[in-house]
Each structure stands twice: as C-alpha cells, then as structure tokens.
Amino acid sequence: MQKDQILESLAKAVLEYDKERAVEGAKKALELGLNPIEALEKGLARGIREVGEKFARMEIFLPHVVMAAEAMQAAANVLLETLPKEEADKLSAGTIVIGTVKGDIHDIGKSLVKTMLSAAGFRVVDLGVDVPIFEFIRKAKESKADIIAMSALMTTTIAEQRDLIEELKRRGEREKFKVLVGGGAVTEDWAREIGADGYGSDMKKAVEEAERLIRGG
Amino acid sequence: MVSFWEVLDRAINTGPMLEPNEFDMLIFRKTSELAKEHDIRYDPNTPVPSDDSLADDLFEAGLKLYLETGTYCINSHRQIKFSEEEIKDALKDVPSKILIGEGAEAKWLERRDIEDRKEPLNLGGVIESNPQEGEIFVKLYQSIAQEKVVDGIYFGPSPTVEGRAWRAGSPLEVHAGRCAASWVREALRRVGRPGLHLITACPSAAADIATCDPGNGIRISDAIAIPTTTELKTDYDSLAKVAFSLDYGCYRNPYWLPMIGGYAGGPEGAAIAGVAGAFHSALVCQTRISGFNNAGAILIEPKGVQTDRRVIWVTSLMWQALSRNTNMIGGMGVTTAAGPGTEMMFLENAATAIAIVVSGGHITHGIRKAVLARPNQGSGLEPKFQGEVAKAAAGLKRADANEMIKALLAKYEDRLAKAPEGRSFEELYDLKTLTPKKDYLEIFYKMKKELGELGLSIE
Question: Does domain A3-89 have CATH number 3.30.70.360?
C-alpha cells in the first residue's frame, strides 16, 4: 500500500465515522514506517476538517461529528503512543476543561464545542452539566489545562461565569488559565464585562477563539 | 393504568440506567432507522405537506421511538420506559378539550383537526422578552392583555428583582416568580380582564410553585410550563412541577423542541422525536389527566430560530400526525430571528402561525426574538398580529397554506443568519397611552396588506 493510499484511507475512515478502520489504518501506517505526525495531520486531520465543513453546511448532524471525532481520537492515540511523551504533548493544540455552569443542564451546545475542539487537536476534559466553579478550577489544575471553557444557556445562570473569573482573581490564579465563555445567553458585551479572555458565539468561533488564546492572541 | 407515582418510581428507583451519551446516540440510531423504515423524507418544496399517510407513518415511527427510548431522567440517569399498552392506554385518557381562564375570560381550548374551520386560541404574548422589573413589566403585559385577540398569556420572571439579578434555583428566583405573577395579574386588572388564562414559566420548580396563588398568582384555571430537555429528557425540577400541579389542580403545559441537526439528526429525525414527545407529555407530564402542549423544532444555527423552512416542515407534519391520531391539544410559539419593529419579524410570525393553524394547532407560547439584544424586546402588537393571522388562517387548505408560506419564506429566509435586531417596547410604544407609535403601526398595516395580497384576508 502506498503512502498516499494510507493517508487517504485514514481521512476516509474519519469521514465515514469508522473507528475500527481508522485504528487499523493507523497501525498499518506505523507498520509501513510512515511518520506518525504526517499520518495525523495529512490523514486524520484532513478527514475531520471535512467533517466540520459538512456539519456547518448541515449535510451531516451532531451525532456524525461525535462519531467522527471518536474515530479520529482512537486512531490518533495509536499514532501518538509511538512518540516520546514530550513530542506527543507538543502536537496537542492545548488542554481545555469544559462544562455547562451550575444550575444549567443544557448539554448540546457544550458537547458540540467539545467535539469540535477535540477534532481541532485539543485535549478536552468534559465535566458535563451543572458544574460548580470550584470543580472547574480543581479539574483545570489537575489536568494542567490552558483554558477553562464555560457554557450557559440561561440568563439566570451566566453569573456563574463571572464568579469563576472572580474566584481565580481571589486566589491570585487569574493568569494561570485563559477563560472562554459561550452559550445561548452569553453575548460579546457580557464576555467583555466579566473580563473573559474569549467569547465563542458559535462552535466555529469557539474553536477559533481557543486557538487564538493558545497562540497568545 | 400506570400512575404518576409509578412514573416517579421508574424515574428515581427502577428504570434502566444509561450514560447520557448512550441515550443521545440511542435516539440518533433509532430515528435514523425509523426514518428509513417508514420512508419519511423532508421535502423543501412542501414546508406544509398535505400527505395524510406521511403523517400517519410519522406517528407510527414516533411511537416506535418512544417504546425504545422512553424519557431519560438527567438526575438519576434512568430511562422511564413504558409498554405499548401503557402508552395507548394513556392516549385514550387525554382530554380533547379543557376550560382555561375564569369568569368572562373562560374559554374552551380544544383539539383541532387539520384544516379545521374552528378558530385557534392565541395564548402567548411575548414569551421571555427580557422585561425589566416593576411598572414597565406591568405596562408591557398590559399592552398585550388589552388586545382582544389575545386569549391567554405566557410569562416568566424579569431578569432582576429588587434590583438584584436572580439565579435559577435561588431564593431570589422564588421572589422573582411571585412578583412576575402579581405584575401580570395587575396588568390583567388594568385592562378589565382579570380572568385571562396565564402560563407561568420559571426555571425551577420552587419558583413556579411559589407563583401558585388563587388570588394574585397562578390559579387552577392557569398552567405551569414544563420543559423537556432536548431530546426526550426530563429532570427532578420538571417532575416536581408535575407532582405539584396534580395536587394543586392547575393545568400542565409541557413543551419540547427537537433540534434539527442535533441528536435526532435532520428534519425527519426531529419530526419523529417530536411525535415521541407527545407520549412523554401524556405519561411523564400527565397531560392524560389535563393540560396542553407546546411543540415544534429549533435550529442549532441560527441559535434557537423557529421560522426556517425545515422547522416549519417538522412542526406542521408532527402536529398533523398528532391531530390525526390523538386527542392532544397544543401548538407552538414562535421564536424569530428578527426583532420587534421590523418587517421581517412580521413575515416570520405569519409563516409559522399559518403552518401551525392548518396543521391542527393553536398559538401556545406567543412570539419572541431568539437572541435578545436589549431589555423589553416585545410589545402587544406582535401577539396581536400573530393572533389575527392565526384566526384568519382557520379553514385554509394545507396546499394553499403551503404556497402562501413559500411566498413568505422567499421574503426572509436568506436573512435568517443576519436578521435585524429590532427595537424595544419603549421605542415602539407611547407608554402614556399604551399605543404603538405611528411608524410601527405603519409597518403592521403594510404587512397585513402584503398578507392580503397573498390571499390571507385579515379583518
């Protein structure tokens, strides 16, 4: 099997949400001596980018994106296992702790952003819904996160986002983490008012903002 | 008959446990299979389909979905599942009409047929239009209640109370809920309609329960709105609202909005999940005893908008399926992309109202802009227009409505992602006389004229 064929099969496995085939493809790539970084970037990542574009055009739906991201993650783990830890860490776009704030049980927007962040190469720690601010901070420290991302759908829960930022300040740890906010009730003005570092008005913007924050923009 | 206490036992103690993402993917797998099995296909050319067999197929698919999934309880991670016999038994109990409101404002809210000549009721107002607390809140709701074409009002608390922001589940929310109920009652008294039907919609059970007060709050002729988290999920707060309302005696108003592009998949899957929501309503929310429903669909992007062609197709087809196969009473409210004071909001308002009415529904949750840009983004003129369009659409044939809606969609659908923000109540109304300002009235009459040109004559 040629190198190009392998890269193509990796992209296709992600595009067809086929975890098994993606993992097999990754193993095959290693057997044939392909550079794992090249297999990741020119194979798997190409597939997931196309998945994201198809979702934006509503040709596919949220569960497809979830399945594609799972296929990519499983295959990426196979490729990254072969690299020294430091080198593998360098390949990660960054670590993000994400959740829906306390009092709010809305899951879909947060899950969508989580999936797109994983697809963009971030290591994402999903805390679920109804998450207290102390849990965000505890997990962010534990996982050495770069970014804390909070979603709030209701106007009556967005104040939790301000509380988290204030708590980080109180602890003298505001500079340790970038804070990204989003969700149905959140506006750019609100993000500015509470001093958040980034605002994701939709899933695409959330990923762009996360990338900007990691670049130090 | 499965009692509500048995429903709670399944939710809390005995239902099968599942991870949330397993439940989400189960929904997706089943809706995809069922859409294929029943050959349910979205057709952009017929936002209002006239195919009865398609509606019946959708009903069957919705029933099969609910048999597999039941309702998922977010707190306990349990499925509340029912047998086919239990579901059919509950559907037989669902009342086909209920008496809402009191005194001179008492009205029968009845199930409607497809293309029914019987006029729908117009329950709603401006949903949560970000109203400020106090006198301005009263005036905003007064502007709605003074419109004779309004048959009931849905309301939630203002974002602040006593000058303080409240949070869901907090004691301040309880106070905010009680204040909002008393302000709406004051608005009703000022327009001489103290018995008008009300629907309370606080996030937490504690606050909704606190609004219940036979004198100055929610009465037994009123309703408590009961949310369903997308898709087919409930929680302890919603179940507590059901438990309390059964004891207090007011109506339950469950609502559910499948998300197009979400876990149910495309429009076909959302429509199947939409029908399944009706079984959740009958059994988990106990509308088998009394109540009415608000159901349609929403989009992922633009956030929460309900006036897109696919949403109209889902809403129309699911209400046709329910009208043909059950006694369920209900309809939908409308969440628009454009704000009040714009021509586009009237166009969006009309397209969805017509679709709901010819498909067997009422206007149940009024109208609002999806993403509010500022406080007080609503006024009496939007629900007035919505009610007038809805009542004029009674008796229309689906095929005629379809053409009308396509003509309306052509005027706004390419602007849904970049819709105009609109204005606030203070900008649109003279607050002293509580009448719409001249420029807003001109838009209102212009849009009625445009509808007349499309064949919908409004008195």
Answer: no
